[in-house]
Amino acid sequence: MKSYENDIAENLPPQEISAEQSASGVFTWVIQSDTFYADAAAAALFGFSAAETKSGLPRAAFRARIHPDDVVRFAEAVEDMLKTGVPFQEDYRVCRPDGTCVAVSGFGACFRDEHGTPLYCSGMMVASAGVPVEAEVLDEDEIAIDPLLHHCLLALEIARTRNDEDTITALSDALRSALVDAVPLTRH
Q: Class for domain 3-139, per CATH?
């Protein structure tokens, strides 16, 4: 682990917070290693242990817990933040391993080097009060992101880090089209 990643992990609070206690948490995404660090409250929102997120997890582990109906919109908002530098603000649902979902508002900003290359994204996530999705329970097949979609999203991230605009456009269009066809507009 690089020294800056050690610094992030060492400065996170050590306490364990239950999902019921957590209302908001903080995170840092180290873009180069695609590692996501979070405090105990953010870990609880996503159904991870504080020990897991303190030492860092692949960002894909967090993304896999975003509700299937929200994942494309969320990915597009992150992509926009990386491209434009405009701070991220998005509302989405997180599906925990026990099948419960929680509404989350995420806020973040990207920090760049002297050449404009994104290095880190840091921010906070807040459980949205008054949104009745906590009682929603998803089937196990709804919680896991489709493997092909997951790999396409990873390919999109690789293209983005390489600033390959043609591939970014092609993958974004293909993903958007595939998801419009595959995801029902309403839940039954």
A: alpha beta
Q: What is the DSSP string of 7-29?
A: HHHHTS------TTT-SEEEEEE
The pLDDT of residue 18: 44
Give residue-wise pLDDT tens across range 16-68: 444 444 478 999 999 999 999 999 999 999 999 999 999 999 999 999 999 99
* Residue 85 CA: distances (Å) to CA of 78, 155, 158, 163: 10, 21, 18, 14
How many CA atoms lie less than 13 Å away from 67 in the CB half-sphere? 20
The phi and psi torsions of 76 (rounded to 5 degrees) equal -65, -40
Beta bridge partner(s), residue 3? none
Task: Give the pTM.
Answer: 0.60
pLDDT tens digits, 63-106: 999 999 999 999 999 999 999 989 989 999 999 888 888 899 99
Quick one: tokens of 4?
Answer: 């800056």
3-state helix, strand, coil in the chain (%, to 5): 40, 25, 35
- Is the CB of residue 58 less than 8 Å from the CB of residue 35? yes
Q: Where are the domains of the chain?
A: 3-139, 146-182
Look at 75-84, 163-172, 179-188 and tell me which has the smallest mean pLDDT.
Answer: 179-188
